[in-house]
Amino acid sequence: MTKRVLIAGFMHETNTFSQLPTTLDSYKARTLYYGADVATHMRKGKSEIAGFLDACTRHDWQGTSPVFANATPSGKVTEDTFEHVTTVILDCLKDQGPFDGICLALHGAMVCTHTDDGEGELLQRIRAVIGPDVPIAVTLDLHANITDRMAELADIMVIYRTYPHVDQYEVATQAANLLQRTLLGEIKPRSLVVRGQMLDGADHGRTTSPGPMTEVLQLAKAGVAATPGVLAASVAAGFPWADTPDTGPSVVVVGNGISDSCKQLADRLIAEIWRSRNRVTLELQTIDQAIAAVTAAGERRAPIVLADFADNPGGGGYGDGTRLLKAMIDAGLQDAAFGLLYDPVAVRTCIEQGLGAHVVVAIGGKIDGRYGEPIPVTGHVVAVTDGSLRLQGPMMAGTRIEMGPTVVLRVGGIDIFMTSGRFQLYDLNFFQHANLDPRTKAVVAVKSAHHFRAAFAPIASEIIVVDGGGGLTSRNYKQLSYEKVRRPVFPLDLD
């Protein structure tokens, strides 16, 4: 008999230190689809939703998709926004049910104005409608802060294993396959989560080179193979820029029922993360060090890529920090590109002046001057676009992005991409959609901490990750005012 499965997504990575609230407009600015539009826009990509939708064909499910919502990381999700998306899901369950199973694409680090545990609250609302017996399969971001309530309410939880996140489709496929086995009566999965006394760990989840995260993932894979009754074991590096009781790395084990062996495996893996807590593969440079390295590099066949680690919109950074950009301008760098600078006011000024115009404008630094003041510049508008593009990948290939009006302002030798929406730059097409090929530049600066590596590492002669010491995604955790996180915790208190 064909099984009826609800497929939905409600995602947000919340930086609780950001002053930008996450509203419904925040979702509309990135991804908010309802009903049939979910499949229309998401099926051809490599996202979790695409994986779930393809599972419908593979397992002969009748899939129903009421909503997919995903906003750029920022401050807390407003209660009205949470209620809106949640109500769409609950109304579908009530009006179109009953359903045999549920597949949810969640992040795992959503904090709302009314609750620190957005995903747990959503799952509890869903359980109140469907009861305890309908199985729920959930995918989570590698930087999830997973609560006990989430694990109690979701039968199946599977976390991305790559950072940059290039395995979303595959993780959704794994979760859907476990749900199918559940629907066939082969297994009765349950999820167990354990966490350590850490804000951050496992090298923040980096998998682009050997290190703590790749090692613990190998242990998890071996543990699943060697432990009867264990169906999956996942590792979350945590999202440290969230002030909640459960912030930090965790391990989720899905068992065919919860047993002592499940708990023992989870404990072994979290102990390994604790053991490696001081090992970090990423070498951060100051702005002065980065500029000195670029100016000393000489001519290269491929660009030097500078990553603005401290102002990464992908972790809740405002995206309008100007410290690195100002240093590039002051150094007189030539044949360079910088993106993406969030400044809808400057974008509007440039568009009003028109393509080809010479404009005098102050750019960036409009949200919080602590991360760089606005820079007065005289520039030449060399491109104007509607900000519409489709990602090439490897990360989220095929996904449609709508940045809003976007301009390229040439200041000296630097092409500065300015947008009306906040977006992390992790795909070549952010540049290419404005007819600029980053592969031809001597220097390319991106507001991204790590995701950029999927697309930019293959074209780079060198990558320099820059932390100017200030920004919402800097690693200087002790400069942030944590009030709710459990204490003592590494690195605030413990070694």
Explain what this protein looks like in three dimensions.
- The chain is of the alpha/beta class and 495 residues long.
- 29% of the residues lie in helices and 23% in strands.
- The chain folds into two domains: 273 residues, Rossmann fold (3-Layer(aba) Sandwich), CATH 3.40.50; 194 residues, no CATH class.
- The protein contains 14 helices and 21 strands.
- A nine-stranded mixed β-sheet has the order 11-21-12-20-13-19-18-15-14. Strands 1, 2, 3, 4, 5, 6 and 7 form a seven-stranded mixed β-sheet that branches.
- It is globular, with a radius of gyration of 22 Å.
- The model has no long low-confidence stretch (mean pLDDT 96).
Topology record:
Layout: E1 3-11, H1 24-28, E2 31-34, H2 36-42, H3 48-59, E3 61-64, E4 67-70, H4 79-96, E5 101-106, H5 118-130, E6 136-140, H6 148-153, E7 156-159, H7 168-183, E8 190-195, H8 212-226, E9 230-236, E10 250-255, H9 260-275, E11 284-285, H10 287-297, E12 304-308, H11 323-330, E13 336-342, H12 344-353, E14 358-363, E15 375-385, E16 388-390, E17 400-402, E18 406-411, E19 414-419, H13 429-432, E20 443-446, H14 453-456, E21 462-466
Parallel strand pairs: 1-3, 1-4, 1-5, 5-6, 6-7, 11-21, 12-20, 12-21, 13-19, 13-20
Antiparallel strand pairs: 2-4, 8-10, 9-10, 14-15, 15-18, 16-17, 18-19
Calculate the mean pLDDT score and round it. 96
Which CATH class of the largest domain applies here?
Alpha Beta
CATH superfamily of the largest domain: Response regulator
- Rg, rounded, reads 22 Å
Largest sheet descriptor? 9 strands, mixed
In the residues, how many domains can be counted?
Answer: 2
Low-confidence stretches: none
How large a portion of the residues is in β-strands, by DSSP E? Answer: 15-25%
Q: Strand tally, please? A: 21
The secondary-structure class comes to alpha/beta
**DSSP helical segment count:** 14
Quote the distance from N terminus to C terminus.
57 Å
Physical arrangement of strands within the biggest beta sheet = 11-21-12-20-13-19-18-15-14
Helix percent reads 25-40%
| CATH architectural group of the largest domain | 3-Layer(aba) Sandwich
Instruction: Assign the CATH topology of the largest domain.
Output: Rossmann fold
